[in-house]
């Protein structure tokens, strides 16, 4: 039920910064503001630090305490309380009673449980996983016995060398956002468990590096786990006497930190307080130093010149995972000015949004922000940078997370990972998926049929994008597909072989493709087969892979057959033991046969009640059949020299 609290809607002008008086946890409610205009949406974003806007109705949803609601009423907003969402929110804010998950939210690991998972993965996958301490939380810098290390979980096959493209992902930098850290922890587990089992996970770990800062704000997260709706870090030097101390870490990064168009607050008690200076916080400093260490600068010049493009061949991705709002965002957040790579950023953003169903848009589209992580990473390094806002609540219930948010966003992450070699280029080409072979294991020389789907239409078109990309995202006709064995398309010496359209013609934006692979020259063992499609626009998409196993053909065999008979009666002897080399068979009604490797070997025969016969040597050529009979003398017919007959 929705309770109407205030009815008048007025225009908003000149928003002052408001300090926040203490308020009880139970005072937090989820309120809905009816279809405010864009200028008001931006002001709400600055006030609350986070809003959810329904793209259809235009309604805005925020979490508000008593002071926030008084402010809304004073501004003459028409708003209402969502009782059901409020009850869920207040249940989530119950204090944490034990270190085993979060009460009511067993699907989310605590800070300690996340670190335990990291330790376990490093122990269980020593060649694929390592943990890197990149710095300290604010509390640890003040008291080494408290607070937390900031730990990056690095995933890659350490036995494969060379410079590899990198994906850096930070999650839950805003403390009350439970879903991001859990999503990325599950993606790490999926990658590692899939190595050697899932072909895409295998090649991704062989050829790329994944750097996951799972808990980017552990001090603040512990505050949230204890029953606080906590957003910022725990720097008590600012607003220490209020209920909202700390710095908004996602307003503390250096690029456009001091850009004076709103998007952050200079008030220490504001939820979007940017800090006393750019990169003032130890958490921010740790991320900056680490990101600079793993990504080269491919966007030289002034980081705050919005029009400078990064090198289109830039490798790697920077992702900052948040909740909530169901958005895929890319730079810039400070203004509507497009970046120098606006079209390429929009293309990958719209590709990821196809998988999770979110709204793709430039970060400024909802409201301006400044000093954010993605503007920093793109502005300084030129690496394609995105913020993904998961789900519909900070404390999303486990059913929704596990059945909807997690599976859809894991798909988006899997796609993004396949573009790391050239994220400004590959998303413009068609996607390859649903790879299959008609036999997982084949004898060398036997053909194996490979099929796949190549599709250029898997974009989610922008609905609320501000500004729109400078060019539309056309769905090109598929021009072809190629397969590569044990080499990615861009590796030196890689030669792709053409695949055929399933319907006989490349004339659609989505095509089934196939080919019969000649395996004659393939060495025994497992092989990765990659499929890459290209479209009529000349763009090549990210590859996908499938395994095939090649086994050696059976060596040419020889056949040894014969008959074991009673020399006196001529009857076949049942149960005679025939040994040829190391192989043994038992005769049936006198007949025996061997399918045996060629060569020279000794053949012996024995049967109960019959004299043994001397071994006979036989030489068998490949595919030759040799007949070798043995008449045996029964012991009852042996006459001894003293004239006595024995039986």
TrEMBL record:
UniProt keyword terms in alphabetical order: Carboxypeptidase, Hydrolase, Metal-binding, Protease, Signal, Zinc
InterPro entries associated with the record: CarboxyPept-like_regulatory, CARBOXYPEPT_ZN_2, Peptidase_M14
Active-site feature positions: 389
GO molecular function, one term: metallocarboxypeptidase activity
Source organism of this protein record: Pseudofulvimonas gallinarii
Protein name as catalogued: Carboxypeptidase family protein
PANTHER family in alphabetical order: OS02G0119300 PROTEIN (PTHR11705:SF119), PROTEASE FAMILY M14 CARBOXYPEPTIDASE A,B (PTHR11705)
Domain Peptidase M14: 107-420
């Amino acid at each position: 039920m929705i309770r109407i609290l205030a009815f008048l809607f007025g225009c908003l002008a000149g928003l002052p910064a408001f300090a926040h008086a203490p308020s009880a946890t139970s005072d937090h409610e989820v309120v809905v503001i009816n279809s405010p205009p864009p200028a008001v949406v931006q002001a709400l974003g600055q006030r609350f630090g986070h809003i959810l806007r329904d793209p259809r109705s235009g309604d805005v949803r925020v979490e508000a305490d008593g002071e926030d609601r008084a402010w809304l009423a004073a501004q003459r907003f028409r708003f209402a309380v969502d009782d059901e969402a409020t009850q869920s929110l207040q249940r989530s804010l119950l204090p944490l009673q034990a270190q085993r998950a979060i009460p009511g939210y067993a699907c989310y690991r605590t800070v300690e449980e996340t670190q335990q998972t990291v330790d376990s993965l490093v122990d269980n996958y020593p060649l694929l996983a390592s943990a890197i301490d990149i710095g300290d939380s604010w509390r640890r810098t003040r008291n080494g016995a408290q607070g937390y290390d900031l730990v990056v979980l690095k995933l890659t096959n350490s036995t494969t060398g060379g410079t590899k493209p990198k994906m850096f992902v930070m999650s839950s930098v805003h403390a009350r956002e439970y879903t991001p850290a859990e999503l990325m922890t599950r993606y790490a587990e999926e990658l590692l468990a899939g190595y050697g089992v899932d072909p895409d996970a295998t090649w991704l770990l062989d050829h790329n590096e994944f750097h996951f800062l799972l808990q980017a704000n552990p001090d603040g997260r512990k505050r949230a786990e204890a029953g606080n709706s906590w957003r910022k870090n725990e720097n008590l030097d600012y607003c220490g006497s209020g209920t909202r101390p700390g710095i908004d870490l996602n307003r503390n990064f250096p690029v456009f930190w001091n850009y004076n168009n709103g998007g952050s607050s200079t008030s220490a008690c504001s939820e979007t307080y940017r800090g006393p200076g750019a990169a003032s916080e130890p958490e921010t400093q740790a991320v900056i130093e680490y990101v600079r260490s793993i990504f080269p600068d491919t966007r030289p010049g002034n980081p705050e010149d919005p029009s400078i493009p990064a090198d289109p061949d830039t490798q790697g991705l920077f992702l900052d995972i948040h909740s909530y709002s169901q958005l895929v965002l890319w730079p810039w957040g400070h203004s509507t000015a497009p970046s120098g790579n606006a079209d390429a950023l929009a293309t990958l953003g719209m590709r990821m949004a196809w998988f999770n169903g979110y709204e793709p848009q430039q970060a400024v589209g909802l409201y301006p922000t400044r000093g954010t992580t993605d503007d920093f990473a793109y502005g300084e390094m030129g690496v394609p940078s995105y913020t993904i806002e998961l789900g519909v609540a900070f404390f999303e219930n486990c059913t929704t997370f596990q059945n909807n948010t997690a599976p859809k966003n894991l798909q988006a992450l899997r796609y993004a990972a396949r573009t790391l070699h050239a994220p400004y280029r590959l998303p413009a080409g068609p996607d390859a998926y649903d790879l299959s072979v008609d036999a997982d294991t084949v004898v060398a020389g036997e053909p194996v049929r490979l099929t796949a789907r190549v599709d250029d239409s898997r974009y989610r078109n922008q609905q609320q994008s501000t500004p729109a990309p400078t060019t539309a995202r056309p769905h090109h006709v598929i021009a072809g597909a190629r397969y590569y064995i044990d080499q990615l398309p861009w590796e030196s010496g890689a030669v792709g072989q053409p695949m055929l359209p399933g319907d006989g013609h490349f004339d659609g934006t989505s095509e089934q493709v196939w080919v019969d692979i000649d395996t004659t020259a393939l060495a025994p063992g497992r092989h990765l087969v990659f499929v890459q499609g290209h479209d009529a626009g000349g763009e090549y998409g990210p590859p996908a892979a499938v395994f095939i196993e090649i086994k050696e053909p059976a060596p040419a065999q020889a056949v040894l057959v014969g008959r074991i008979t009673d020399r006196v009666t001529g009857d076949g002897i049942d149960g005679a033991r025939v040994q040829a080399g190391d192989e043994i068979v038992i005769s049936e009604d006198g007949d025996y046969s061997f399918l045996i490797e060629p060569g020279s070997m000794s053949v012996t025969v024995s049967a109960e009640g019959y004299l043994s016969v001397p071994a006979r040597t036989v030489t068998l050529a490949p595919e030759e059949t040799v007949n070798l009979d043995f008449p045996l003398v029964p012991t009852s017919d042996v006459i001894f020299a003293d004239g006595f007959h024995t039986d």
